[in-house]
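QA checklist item 7 of 12: single-chain prediction sanity check.
[x] sequence parsed
[x] length recorded as 392
[x] structure emitted
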Amino acid sequence: MDSTFAPSENDRFNTGLPISAELLKSDAPRAGQAEETLPKILDVVSSPLPFSDMLVTADEDVMIRNANGWLKFDRAPYSEADIEFILWQMDAQWAELLHRGGFSRPYVVGNFRLRVTAYLAFRGAKKMLAIRRTPVDPMHFKDTGLPDSVKLMIENPQGLVLLSGATGAGKTTTMAALVDLLNETRNYHIETIEDPIEFVFKRKKSVFSQREVGHDIPTYNEGVRGAMRQRPDVIIIGEIRDRDTAENAILAGESGHLVIATLHASSVSGAIQKLVSFFPGEESAKYASLASSLVGVIHQCMVPGTTQGEGVVATELLFNHKQSFSEFLNSPIKINAALDEKVGGMSQSLAMSLHSLVKEGKIAKADALKTVASQGSAHTKLIKMFDLQAVR
């Protein structure tokens, strides 16, 4: 496996766990080990099965994660020699790095980009590999399952677009699709700030500056602040994690850039509240800033589809390009009511999206209800929609 990026010091963790010297003996792989191990790797990674993650340890079933959760991959388990061969390919000093807590490396295998993280578990008794698999090329917008109306958000030349959802909801895929759509349609300078770089974009109409935290910049905040001096038209922020990054994201949106940023939240209103929560004591001022700079919020979640193993994206959308929501961004109750009423004609609640997907036969009613089971009001609304339409 050939690495497409140089290893980052930020990929090496330091926890100082006490570990058995016998477990971490690091003799070089024996002759012929590559011929045994590489076909096993390619067999899993190149599988046409829809999955995003793999979990591998010696002498146990390989597990893969798709929209239905973690499932057994129906192939022979990896041996201890297989695991150590992979570790050797990742770093000749793998034993020392595992002793420090673990390490990660990026690779490209066929049509997929991998992020391989090696670590110890069960008090050092097992060497484990967690592998994230993403396509090399961004997904076309038409294949994401997002409504066409989302394209309108990125037609704005400036302002802030928030993309929220839980881990595994497909935010990275959506972000890449939006960026590539801009690449196909705009003569822009697009600067991305990522940890790590997930997709390497090829120039179409736009030019790129892709910067990775730990390699090109020390932090997200420094990346966003520096970007405003480098004349980008669009700034992509892989994740808003702290106050300084949040502040610079808002500032960049106010100062003439289109900013698209992700953060973890459970709803559209939750995303807005989380952004403002980075500023205790300054909430009123930040809501006022967002009133003029917020273009929209895309919240998404991944729901098991009716096709086995495939996930379907359900979305909650807030369009604020006409500032329809600006007067009550500080009120989740009013935001949710406006989403239910489709204020502006394009905004929609998550319940609406789920209801439509069930009617279209893309997801099951039970999975739709399970998606909003912890959101009392959304769950109640969805049940009422099903009752009114007599959906089974």
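[x] summary fact logged: Residues 62 and 75 are 8 Å apart (CA to CA).
[ ] second reviewer sign-off
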